[in-house]
Amino acid sequence: MLDQLLTTIILGLIQGLTEWLPISSTAHLKLAETLFGLAVTPLFNLLLHLGTMSVIIFYFRQDVKNILLALWHADFRSENGMLLPRLAVATVPTAVIGLGYSVFLQDSLGTVPIIAATFLVGGTIVYSTKFAKEDIDGLSYKTVLLIGLAQGLAIFPGLSRSGVTISTALMIGLKREKAFKFSFLLSIPAIIGDFAFEAYSQRGILLASGINIISATAAVLVAAVVGYFSIKLVSKTVKSRKFHYFAFYTWSLGIALLTATWLLS
Fold first, then answer.
1. Which of 45, 128, 197, 222 has the most CB atoms at less than 10 Å from its CB?
2. Judging by beta carbons within 10 Å of its beta carbon (0-12, 13-18, 19+), is residue 77 exposed, middle or buried?
3. What is the pLDDT of residues 153-173, one digit of tens each?
4. How far apart are the C-alpha atoms of 235 and 32, rounded to whole Å?
């Protein structure tokens, strides 16, 4: 029981720390499985996502409340109401890419060399924000489609959801606070959709994971608490124009993984 508790806490820590920082939680969890022999079961993966999604809802609770109130009153003209169709439009390419990946590519793109390569790509995308110019205040449908497309590509291990969506928004020219907020609000329907898809596709083996309630609860709490501070760190780096600093971490990790793969081959 203690071994399982320690393992789940470690995985919860990894999930909470890397889900919102632009360094890819999926890749880090896969690396933890490969390098340390830690297993992420379908049920546990779903629970970790619940933990990190709860952080987003809590952090943006006022925005989420206002958006839901706008939906309840069928108000699509206010600032919050206009976000609803834009979030829906941006979610479409994310869903299409995610479904295609799950059906055709999921089993072939989780290797260490591929993760290393996508770390390098993801780092380059994040570093590009150093040259971003903020000259757009509104969210056009073209802008949100591009951000949604970027979020869809983040399903590939090594590409971070927050990294590619915030970077895309900034490179388009969207102002930093709006880029940050829209990126994270857009993650809510994406995580809900991913949760529903995983719960359905893995329904036959969820109960076979053998995880106990104490370990599961501990992991979710750790992921949520650490995830909250991760979001605050991302917010600070975006506002201070230091978001591109994260690229040096992913570049270093990608190079280290490629080097290790070459030496061990």
1. 222
2. exposed
3. 998 888 999 999 999 999 999
4. 27
